[in-house]
Design brief:
Elements (H helix, E strand, L loop, with lengths): L2 E12 L2 E12 L3 E5 L6 H9 L5 E9 L2 E2 L5 H7 L1 E4 L6 E5 H13 L5 H14 L10 E2 L5 H15 L3 E5 L7 H14 L5 E5 L4 H5 L4 E6 L2 E6 L2 H9 L2 H4 L3
Parallel strand pairs: 3-10, 3-11, 6-9, 9-10
Antiparallel strand pairs: 1-2, 1-4, 4-5, 7-8, 11-12
Bound molecules: adenosine-5'-triphosphate and magnesium ion (MG).
Length: 247
Amino acid sequence: MSELLRVENLHVSVGEKELLHGINLTVHKGEVHVIMGVNGAGKSTLLHAIMGNPTYEVTEGKIYFEGEDISELSVDKRAKLGMFLSFQNPISVAGITMENFIRTAKTTITGKQQRLFPFKRLLKSRLEDLVMDPSYSERYLNHGFSGGERKKSEILQMRILEPKLAMLDETDSGLDVDAVRVVSKNISDFHNENNSILLITHLNQILKFIKPEFVHVLIDGYIVKEGGPELVDEIETNGFDAYRKEV
Ligand SMILES: Nc1ncnc2c1ncn2[C@@H]1O[C@H](COP(=O)(O)OP(=O)(O)OP(=O)(O)O)[C@@H](O)[C@H]1O
Ligand SMILES: [Mg+2]
């Protein structure tokens, strides 16, 4: 399988404080990776740094996407290459409807004008997949959305933008049991051998639907353990203490 993402010896700081201390991570096309770890370990920081959020300064190391060094590229250029980040806490934007936002994003990313009616049909069908009322397309982006609705709106964007790498930061947190099922199904339907998923989660429920091939445990800015899906059960049983000692 060909390599999609390679993170090499990544050190990331916010202000004076180093949050990640030399992360190595390789994701091939078609793979599903999960990052688990205690609160404040640096999981969200890692995804933001990979996406190019300028708040998170890469002080050392490199990020490669499809073999190209993207360490210096801006967020929008990374998005155009096929990278997508769903936020742990999705922001709301008053004044821009969901439809306009996603249509503009799709036009920008693909460089192709999205014709209005085909796009409306696509959006409606994707909203149905997420068990969301079509009226959401006319609402301002995430404005007044419940926590669960915001998470679904991120998945809606992912499905329409069809990135090569979908980074999902706790997409399952705050979802009711039915919504976890719906969101998981949408992620599974999106996933194929040409795209990859990098998922952060604290919950095992979503992993019943989306089977990761690789699990990485992040503690205090270090990846302290890596393995297959069996690690999920090990963590469920023993917690993170055993790995903490390895830091
Ligand atoms: N913009 C920022 N300014 C200052 N500190 C930050 C910033 N972003 C993250 N941090 C700090 O970096 C550490 C790692 O944060 P991060 O959000 O990556 O953790 P996490 O592993 O995603 O945790 P959680 O499981 O709670 O989401 C935390 O101590 C956090 O307070
Ligand atoms: Mg986080």
